[in-house]
Amino acid sequence: MQRSLPQNKEALLKSYTTRLKEDVKSMLENFEEIIKWAKVENESQLNRMTQIEQDTFEMQVRAANIVRAGESLMKLVSDIKQYLILNDFPSVNEAITQNSKLFRTKQQECDQKLMSLRDDIAADLYDLEDEYFTSIYK
């Protein structure tokens, strides 16, 4: 039996999934581009130093994008942990149910003891009353 989530929780989980896919895709694309830029293609380039500088700059930008995507993934993990903590109602409900059963059992035990005491006191009072009215010393 699958629990149905409220729509706002489903939307939140879908946004987490979307963020995860986007961040991983960004990291992968940037990593692939760094690998492409790192390859030496053709030694006959006209201005080799300019090309090297441009390639280095491009790799630095891609590396920064990977770092940004990694930080975004860390934030996503934090958000998911917070979501799980705040929405872990089944375990909270289970603990409440167990405590309720325990307290209900204790309450029934106390009620039985109190009723037993009530009956004992009532019987003793009845005996005392009977003894008082039948006594020759009144």
From TrEMBL:
One of its GO terms (cellular component) is mediator complex. Keywords: Nucleus, Transcription, Transcription regulation. Pfam families: Med22. GO terms for molecular function: transcription coregulator activity. This is Mediator of RNA polymerase II transcription subunit 22. Belongs to the Mediator complex subunit 22 family. Its main location: nucleus. InterPro entries: Med22 (IPR009332).
